[in-house]
């Protein structure tokens, strides 16, 4: 404890301030899956063990394995709640079908000026879930850093090849973290759109407030009242 206090006084910043950030979220937790290329599938059995959440976000293979048909243009977007600014590294727990079905394209908000595409995957481990890092172009093991500011950052995954399953993502400031197996999700890592319940509530709230359209509705002219109104009047 005394050593910690001495170090704190010397460096002038809290020791816990340097704690790395680990944001883990399910690949299938993304909203707006269109089904054109991406689908959510159950994936329970795997040589690598448990599939987190028992589901994956998949890009099914198009045609036969040797056809190498590129899936239709489709994408999903993760809106990630970044708790603090810093240099981050991205990992995905993925299952590739073959060396021709082993990568997805990425766009990272803040790095998409000029529309560059980053490639995630392209490694040689197939037919089993495993963690793959986003690496420098042409490298198998040098992690590609990117700077994020605190707030919400969008990472877009674009379908590039079929035969793909994505289980979890890890976004971290820890350059030396080497994830293994299914990880525990980080609560609140993703910003989800408002739920249907919220939408319903807001609709109810709106319905009690007269809108411009309501105000402009023409008045009912005597003798031309709708049938239901006439019925109510007649039964009084
Ligand atoms: Ca999963």
CATH class: Mainly Beta
Report the sheet-strand fraction: 25-35%
The proportion of residues forming helix, as a percent range, comes to: 10-25%
Uncertain residue ranges: 4-9, 207-236
Largest sheet: 7 strands, antiparallel
Structural class: alpha+beta
Count up the domains.
1
**CATH homologous superfamily (4th level) name:** Galactose-binding domain-like
| CATH topological fold name | Jelly Rolls
In short:
The chain has helices at 2-11, 196-207, 212-215, 227-235, and strands spanning 22-26, 39-42, 55-59, 75-82, 86-96, 103-108, 118-121, 130-133, 146-148, 151-158, 164-172. With 236 residues, the chain is α+β, with helices and mostly antiparallel strands. It has a single domain (18-196), classed as Galactose-binding domain-like (Jelly Rolls, Sandwich).
Index terms:
binds calcium ion; disordered C terminus; 11 strands; 4-stranded antiparallel beta sheet; Jelly Rolls; alpha+beta; 4 helices; globular; 7-stranded antiparallel beta sheet; 236 residues
Structure description:
The protein has 236 residues and is of the alpha+beta class. It has one domain: Jelly Rolls, CATH 2.60.120.260. It is 15% helix and 28% strand. Strands 1, 2, 3, 5, 8, 9 and 11 form a seven-stranded antiparallel sheet that branches. The longest helix is centred in the C-terminal third of the chain and has 12 residues. The protein is globular, with a radius of gyration of 26 Å. It starts with a helix and ends with a helix. The C terminus is likely disordered. Bound molecules: calcium ion. Calcium ion binds next to strand 3 and strand 11.
